[in-house]
Amino acid sequence: MNDNNYFKKYLKYKIKYLKLKEKLKGGSQKLKWQDKITSELNRKLLEDGLQPVFVGDDGNCFFRAISYVLYGTEEKHVELRQKLARSIRDSPLVIEGIPIASDSDISRDRAWVSDELEIRRMSKIIKRPIHVYKNYPTGGSIVDEFLPLLDRERKKFIYEPVPIIHLSTRDRIGVHYISTKPR
After folding, report:
1. Residue 117 — φ and ψ, nearest 5°?
2. What pTM, to 2 d.p., does this model score?
3. What is the DSSP-derived secondary structure letter of residue 60?
4. What is the pLDDT of residues 28-52, one digit of tens each?
C-alpha cells in the first residue's frame, strides 16, 4: 500500500474513532464482551489454540491486553503506555514529509489507543508482531498483523506474535480490547 493510500485509510479510521469516543463520553456504556465473541471469531480462536481473557475496561484495555500476553498480568499496562507515549514523542512518524501526529493524549491514563500507527509503534517497542483478532472482520480477514512500517525497525524481532482481540460494533467501530491465553 503506498503512503498516500495509507494516509487516507488512517484519516478515515481516525474520524470513526473520534465519533465513537464522543458518543461514549456522555455515559457509561459497558460492553458485554462475551456477547461480542462471534461464532466466526470463536472458531478462529479455537483453531489457533487461544481463548479470550477479559481485561479491565477503563480506557487502558489495549495496554492491559498486551501486558497480559507478555507478562501474565494486566499490571504492567502503565509501563507499556509510558513506553508508547515516549516513543511517539521522541520520534514522530513522517509520511511524504508530513508529520503524522498520533492521539496527543496517549500519555494520559485511560486515553484510548486510537489508530493503527499506535499499534504498529507498540509492535516496534515490544519487538514482536501484534495479531489483532476481530469479531467483525473487514476485507474477509479475521486477524490483522501489525508490524512497524519500516523494515529496518523489524530487526531483532522475536516472531512469536502477541495475540489480542479487538471487539467492535457491527459498523466496525472499535470499543474494547481483550487478551488471550492458550487453551
Report:
1. -60, -40
2. 0.76
3. -
4. 444 465 667 788 888 999 999 999 9
Place of cell 482481540: 165
Closest to 70 (Cα-Cα) out of 166, 165, 163: 163
Q: Which domains does the chain have, with CATH numbers?
A: 3-21+36-182 (3.90.70.80)
Residue 125 CA to residue 119 CA, distance in Å, equals 10
Which pLDDT tens digit goes with each residue over 154-182? 777 877 899 999 888 776 667 889 999 99
- Sole residue written with cell 487516507: 8
Cell of 95: 509520511
| Distance (Å, whole) CA 23 – CA 25 | 6
- Taking a C-beta distance cutoff of 8 angstroms, is the pair 69, 133 a contact? no
What number of other Cβ atoms are within 10 A of residue 25's Cβ? 8
In sequence order, what are the beta bridge partners of 13? Answer: none
| Ranges of H-type helices in 28-182 | 33-36, 39-47, 61-71, 77-90, 116-126
C-beta atoms surrounding 149 within 10 Å: 17
